[in-house]
Every structure is written in structure tokens, then in C-alpha cells.
Amino acid sequence: MISLHIKKAEDIWIGVAYEGKKIFATTFAFTETHALRRLLHNIPFNVPFQKAEAPSNFAALVTDSIKGIYEGKGLHNNFSLATEYLRPYARKIIEVVTFIPVGYVSSYGCIAKAAGGSPRAVGRVMATNPFAPIVPCHRVVNSDFTLGGYGGGLHAKLEILSREKRGYSSEKEISVNDDKLRVFPVEIVFRKLKKSKC
Dihedral angle at the C-alpha atoms of 121, 193, 99, 181, nearest 10 degrees? Predict the structure, then answer.
């Protein structure tokens, strides 16, 4: 049975749906109701669930990791995600996006080149990412480095990215299976934003 755990961490609510040490969904939101709604929306409809009275050590580790990501820290744990409930293409996109490191962004188009499909198809998968922010869809932007969309709101996306700045100055390629994924310093997004305000 899937257990749901939601807790408040300063100004956000963080949630995880899990069974044993496997994650079915994660989320953060600005209200408890919104966090619970997102978790319920993302768990498989045919699997029973319950709200955990007390979180397991695993649930506490996951929620602490989500808080760390929200604060701009990297993910230091390799969690097992229940991707078997996703369509094969969504699984492929989710896997590619997990390779985008802190301090970098990639575009819908670059992800499509590495995983197949179109930028629009990548966008659809990102819009329904059940593992945000563990699968860092906040690091996926438009090809012109504008923010694109984000289920948590563009303000939240911008906040997280601003905390993830590391001062990197050049793009790089990351090996993903048999392909390459181009990633760019997150600072480019902020330069673009500043330029658009001028």
C-alpha cells in the first residue's frame, strides 16, 4: 500500500507518496491542500493508499531531500522511482532530465535530441512529471532560455534556479546512454531575463 506523507518546511509544503523505499510521487506546494492534491493526482489510480500517521525514516529522508533541492542544493541520494507506471516515452524523458546537474539548465529541444521525440512532447512529459523536484523539471527551459512553463508556478521555478547558480560560464555535454545532452549555465537564464526587462 502506498503511504502519503506531507510536512511543512518553512514556507512550503513537501510531500511524498511511497511504498517501502520506492517513490511513486513527490511534490512541493504553497498549501497543504495543493500538495496533497498533486500527490493524489500522480499516484497510480489502481493502487491502494493511506495517509501515513508517522513518516518512516525513508519518507523523512525524501522530504528533507526535496527541501534541499528547493533551497538550491543538489540531490545526494539515488532514489528508486516507480517509473513502471509511466509510458515508455515518459520514462525515457524522466531518465534524461535526471542527468541535468545543479547549476545548469537544458532546453526542451536538447532533451528531445537526446531522448527522441519533439520539444512539445518533452514539454507534455514535464508538465505531468510525478517526481518534481527530484526529477528536476525546473531545470528545463525554452531554447531561447526563457523559463517556459512550470507546474509549481514560474515564480517558484525562478526562485529555485536563482538558488542553483554556481557561477559556471560555459555549456557542456553530458553522456546519456548512447547520446549526448547539452546543458547550459543557469546564469544564461538570468541574463536573458535581465535583457528582456531593459
Answer: 70
Three cell numbers at 49? 493508499
Long-range contacts of 83-88 (CB under 8 A, 24+ apart): 85/24, 85/44, 86/130
The widest CA-to-CA distance across the chain, in whole angstroms, is 53
In contact, 182 and 91? CB cutoff 8 Å: no
- How do residues 154-177 score in pLDDT, each as one tens digit? 888 999 999 999 999 999 999 998
Q: Where are the alpha helices (DSSP H) in the chain?
A: 32-42, 57-70, 88-97, 108-115, 119-127, 154-163, 187-197
> Structure pTM?
0.93
In 3-state terms, what secondary structure has residue 1? coil
C-alpha cell at 143: 531554447
The four Cα atoms 18, 131, 82, 143 give a dihedral, to 10 degrees, of: 180
Beginning with the edge strand found earlier in the chain, give each strand of the sheet holding 172-176 in spatial order: 140-141, 104-107, 179-185, 172-176
- Rounded mean pLDDT, 171-189: 94
Report the catalytic residues. 137
Beta bridge partners of 30: none
Are the C-beta atoms of 2 and 17 separated by less than 8 Å?
A: yes
The string of pLDDT tens digits covering residues 70-91 is: 999 988 788 999 999 999 999 9
Distance, in Å, from the CA atom of 100 to the CA atom of 2, rounded to the nearest integer, reads: 28
Residue with cell 535526471: 98
- Taking alpha carbons only, the member of 75, 76, 95 closest to residue 84 is 95
Retrieve residue 81's grid coordinates.
522511482
